[in-house]
Amino acid sequence: MNEHQIRRDLIKFSHLCYERHLLVAMDGNLSVRMPSGNIICTQAGCHKGFLTEDELVVIDAQGKKIRGRGRPTSEMAMHIACYNARPDINAVIHTHPPLSIAFTIAGVSLERCVLPEVVLTLGTIPTIDYATTGTTDLAGRVGDAILKHDAILMDRHGAVCVGKNLLEAFCRLETMEHTALITKTALELGGLKELPAEEAIRLRSMGLKRYGGPPSAVARADHPCVDLPDACTSCSSGEAPPPAAAPLPAALPAQRSVAPPAALGSAAAAIEEMVVAEVLKALSKQ
Questions:
Q1: 12, 18, 154, 286 — which has fewest CB within 10 A?
Q2: Which amino acids are annotated catalytic?
Q3: Can you list the positions of beta strands (E) in the chain?
Q4: Which of 55, 94, 48 is nearest to 75 (CA)?
Q5: How far apart are CA 5 and CA 9, in angstroms?
């Protein structure tokens, strides 16, 4: 793609992130690595829902501004860390998807094998420990995580999704938030059923071979546990296991107490019986 097409896509996907409620106000940032090695990114302090071409900045691989109005995003170090970790990617999207962030605040991990499509295309979605936004500490943590994953969450902060292009990164971002919605709904309905270990391993191996992924993950496509955490596979490879995800609660507390239909029916029947009994009692006294 030439620079004109890349600029057009940056504007399109920035607008989509806003329209899909994946960021608000001045949140988030997007970037694309061009064939030259230079990077086009969103300007610091711009509204992604109304992004225009003059709010895009070109920098080199070290983050030095080449051209464009204003400053590059304050979190550019995070984008550069992703590109340095993964020569196979050319796009990075960072947003603040509300449900996904809520999971990190609640201490509930999305690093579980629940939805087959997610295991097939993403594996699992880990949450990295909190670090102050815009710092080299956070950038380093993100780079380390992206080395092994295509989509990650930052505790209390947001999501980082990568891809060969913006469409691929955006699809991974949408999948993350959709997974959070389904997981939350399932927990509110009473619980969560995880995939059997054998099926999770089969799906992930198939997905890595069919769709690819981080090179370090693809290299493990035929490993007995692939690249999945112990929580998904329950297998011991003799290697140091990845960090265990926080246990999922049996159910999330409901926003308001609502009796299920069956319970409502039983309550209504009991009330009806009481009314009939009182009526018969009154008639017997006449």
A1: 286
A2: 75
A3: 29-33, 39-42, 56-59, 65-67, 91-95, 127-128, 151-154, 158-163
A4: 94
A5: 6
Tens of pLDDT, residues 219-269: 999 999 999 999 999 765 434 333 444 455 555 554 443 344 444 344 445
What number of other Cβ atoms are within 10 A of residue 170's Cβ?
A: 23
Q: Which residues of the chain fall below pLDDT 70?
A: 235-286
With the CA atoms of 208, 209, 214 and 216 taken in that order, what torsion angle do they form, in degrees rounded to the nearest 10? 100
Residue extents of the structural domains in the chain: 3-115+124-189, 257-286
Distance of CA 100 to the CA centre of its chain: 6
Classify domain 3-115+124-189 at the CATH topology level. Answer: L-fuculose-1-phosphate Aldolase (3.40.225)
Q: Which residue in the block uniquely carries the two structure tokens 């990114």?
A: 41
Q: Could you tell me the maximum CA-CA distance found in the chain, to the nearest angstrom?
A: 99
Rounded alpha-carbon distances, angstroms, from residue 224 to 18, 71, 153, 208 = 41, 47, 26, 14
